[in-house]
Amino acid sequence: MEDSLPSLTTAVVTLLGMIYVTFRIDWQLGLVALAVSPFLFLSAWAHGRRLRARWREIYKLDSFALSVVQEALAAIRVVQAFDREIREGERFVRRSGESVRTRISVTFIEGGFALLVGLTTAAGTAAVLFVGVRNVQAGALTLGDLLLVMGYLAQLYAILNQLSKSNTALQSSLAR
What we know:
Layout: H1 4-25, H2 27-34, H3 37-74, H4 76-81, H5 85-138, H6 143-174
């Protein structure tokens, strides 16, 4: 969490600067580029809620698994006297297995969100390129300005991707 806050702040400031420059070059392209933002923010919010709930479940399952170990160690003489080592080991494996399965589901959720962000930014890039090429053909925009906007757009979407990764780290921290 401590590492993601400065990078999050830097990303937001850079994002605002790039939005400003893009709007100064061509406001229509700026609007098209930002058209994907509401969808990204809504999906980040929805995935954030799912991730936070899953991380809470993971922390709870980890706690259960560690409590099995603590109970067995606290009563080690009783466990040994009644020959319960295998049963206690199986209890721990069962509890930690649940945690591993939940961690795998979190990885799939994070991967799905990353894929969604990638597809959304690709669609935004295609839309900006389409509108930009039409503006160049109409003489309303120079090819150099379009290339400049496309360069800024690539950086802008990279920052949005970084913010989405920060969101996943943030959800893990908030779940504790």
